[in-house]
């Protein structure tokens, strides 16, 4: 009887854990921007503000990194999400928000590529921003492999 109870608890906890923890299947947003002329300093300050907000409110966002050219006129944004659900949650928080409005006061979109196994819902959420979706076909990423082993 004890074995049956232990087995039942293990099965329930495993099932429960899987319901609350989304599978790791990384999605990357690789986005290139021009910085609006004369707004270089404000643009950099804004990135700290929005990064703090994203870190606090989006648990499925693994990475959210801004890189500027030495003269501050170009910016590259690399966003990493645990999966489609994380990327979709980010878009739901961003589109139509005050954050989106302020973002485009500082940045002009040049190119936007989505890397990973994007589902239809994510493609729909991004339809106004990009149609460049690239599926992972080969290669490796040691950090992601370690994270997957721990979380899946």
Number of domains as seen in the coordinates: 1
Shape: globular
Q: What's the order of the H and E elements? A: HEHEEHHEHEH
- Order the strands across the largest sheet as they lie in space: 2-3-1-4-5
Radius of gyration: 19 Å
CATH architecture: 2-Layer Sandwich
Averaged pLDDT: 86
Q: Which range best describes the helical content: under 10%, 10-25%, 25-40%, 40-55%, 55-70% or over 70%?
A: 40-55%
The total of beta strands comes to 5
| Class inferred from helices and paired strands | alpha+beta
User: Separation of termini?
Assistant: 30 Å
Percentage of β-strand residues = 15-25%
General description of the model:
With 152 residues, the protein is α+β, with helices and mostly antiparallel strands. The chain has one domain (23-136): 2-Layer Sandwich (Alpha-Beta Plaits), CATH 3.30.70.100. The protein has six helices and five strands. The protein has helices at residues 2-20, 40-57, 84-94, 98-106, 120-125, 142-151; strands at 27-35, 61-68, 74-81, 107-116, 133-134. A five-stranded mixed beta sheet has the order 2-3-1-4-5. 18% of the residues are buried. The model is unreliable at 1-20 (pLDDT under 50).
């Amino acid at each position: 009887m004890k074995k049956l109870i232990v087995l039942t608890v293990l099965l329930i906890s495993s099932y429960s854990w899987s319901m609350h923890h989304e599978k790791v299947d990384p999605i990357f947003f690789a986005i290139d921007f021009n910085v609006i002329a004369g707004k270089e300093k404000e643009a950099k300050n804004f990135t700290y503000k929005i990064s703090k907000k994203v870190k606090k409110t989006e648990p499925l966002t693994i990475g959210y990194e801004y890189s500027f050219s030495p003269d501050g006129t170009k910016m590259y944004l690399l966003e990493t999400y645990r999966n489609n659900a994380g990327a979709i949650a980010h878009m739901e928080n961003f589109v139509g928000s005050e954050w989106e409005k302020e973002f485009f006061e500082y940045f002009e979109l040049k190119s936007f590529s989505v890397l990973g196994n994007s589902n239809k819902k994510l493609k729909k959420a991004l339809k106004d921003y990009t149609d460049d979706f690239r599926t992972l076909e080969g290669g490796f990423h040691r950090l992601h492999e370690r994270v997957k082993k721990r979380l899946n």
